[in-house]
TrEMBL record:
Protein's recorded name: Acyl-CoA synthetase
Species, as recorded: Micromonospora wenchangensis
This protein's record includes keyword Ligase: yes
MF GO annotations: medium-chain fatty acid-CoA ligase activity
Family annotation (InterPro entries): AMP-bd_C (IPR025110), AMP-bd_C_sf (IPR045851), AMP-dep_synth/lig_dom (IPR000873), ANL_N_sf (IPR042099)
Length: 415
């Protein structure tokens, strides 16, 4: 395994809590290896990442809320010291068993969308998927420390000259456009929920950020959010990335359309992932895979061919709703709802129903609140909108209106 000792981006600027410094100037904490570091603050997380990049320590970095007491005991039993790092001050519990560190190993936790998070092995090299020279950018990183998406932005800044970084903590997320504008951010990576939430809360503040690159990932992407971002940033490049801890960054689309071209299926190109469909499940063979995940990996994500695109609609265990024997894709119904000009966000699920077994229901956040100029759509109007575009069995029977877009620590809304 290659261990980086002098990353090319060490002179790039990083900004945390309004303070700018270079990667090289970040304090490097003395931490045990193998080690789990639970860092709630952005500054601590970046310092730990820098130490790994320079020293090749065996590391699992995560936010404290991602690792409960049971998992901490499991990690200690696997030979990890567990450190809670707060404002540079470590509190460490030693491992339950001793073992030699694996030089250069980075461990990531999966999202846990299919159950308890699992540990996936990577290295700085396998997480670095952008290798060609890039135009100078200042990136905003809103992700939780240690997540795959967080490492994608961090490795870009660590390994590429001219890729500067502005990191926001969770309590700054509502005000991120003002922070971004103040520090010259021109590139942002976030989930579709992150972007929808900002478009809903303060599109004027978002429009003041001079963005040249917008990246979406981590959730299914529908055409409505892409179109709304394009309206706001007509000259920017808008990218959608499919990535996971298991298979790495495997799909990158820049054409402004939801999904990816059908022609990419089963295309074998050296050095690039191979994408396939098996029983409506996306299967990926990726050169960016985690340890022990070479060959075809079943992703657990449902994908469907719609015209000339392959559209990822959601998780297999939650996307399909059986209504009286007819199969309904929650993701496709969600895309119909979010295409309504009065809908900022939607979640579609199934509910038990007499005779049919299940029926389709939805939660919706309107683009306008009661009392604002322009009345928000009511339940009846949204049902009629769906009835004009969906088979009768797929039309939501109940639509609940919410006032705020729900978001988790992962910046996802569990759709």
């Amino acid at each position: 395994m290659t261990v980086a000792t002098s990353p090319a981006g060490l002179d790039n600027r990083v900004v945390v809590a309004g303070v700018a410094r270079s990667w090289r100037d970040l304090p490097v904490p003395a931490l045990p290896s193998p080690g789990v570091v639970l860092a709630a603050g952005a500054a601590d997380a970046l310092a730990v990442a820098r130490r790994h990049a320079v020293d090749g320590t065996e590391l699992l970095l995560a936010a404290p809320t991602r690792v409960d007491a049971t998992m901490r005991d499991e990690l200690r039993a696997a030979g990890f010291a567990v450190t809670v790092l707060t404002a540079g001050v470590p509190q460490t519990v030693p491992p339950a068993v001793s073992r030699a560190p694996e030089a250069g190993r980075l461990w990531l936790l999966t999202s846990g969308s299919t159950g308890r998070p699992k540990r996936v092995g990577h290295s700085l090299d396998s997480l670095t998927t952008v290798r060609s020279a890039q135009p100078e950018r200042t990136w905003l990183c809103p992700y939780a420390p240690g997540s795959y998406a967080w490492w994608q932005v961090v490795t870009l800044s660590l390994t590429q000259p001219g890729q500067h970084l502005v990191v926001v903590d969770p309590d700054e997320l509502d005000d991120w456009p003002a922070i971004a504008a103040a520090h010259g951010v021109d590139a942002v990576s976030g989930t579709p929920t992150f972007w929808r939430r900002t478009l809903h809360r303060d599109p004027q503040a978002l429009a003041r950020v001079p963005l040249r690159q917008l990246t979406l990932g981590g959730e299914p992407v529908d055409q409505a959010v892409l179109d709304r971002l394009r309206e706001l940033f007509p000259a920017a490049r808008i990218s959608w990335i499919y990535a996971s801890s298991e298979v790495g960054a495997s799909i990158v689309v820049h054409d402004g359309r939801a999904g990816f071209p059908v022609g990419w299926l089963d295309r074998v190109t050296p050095g690039r992932p191979t994408l396939s469909l098996r029983d409506d499940e996306l299967v990926i063979t990726s050169p960016h895979h985690g340890v022990g995940l070479d060959g075809p990996v079943r992703t657990g994500d449902r994908a469907q061919v719609v015209d000339d695109r392959v559209v990822i609609t959601g998780r297999l265990d939650s996307d399909e709703i059986n209504v009286g024997g007819s199969k309904v894709s929650a993701g496709l119904v969600r895309a119909v709802l979010t295409a309504h000009p009065g809908v900022a966000w939607a979640r579609v699920t199934g509910r038990r129903a007499p005779v049919l077994g299940r029926m389709v229901v939805a939660e919706v956040v309107p683009t306008t609140a009661p009392g604002d100029a322009g009345a928000p759509p009511d339940e009846g109007a949204l049902v009629r909108w769906c009835a004009d575009r969906l088979p009768e069995y797929a039309v939501p029977r109940r639509i609940r209106l919410l006032t705020e877009i729900p978001v988790k620590e992962t910046l996802k809304s569990d759709v």
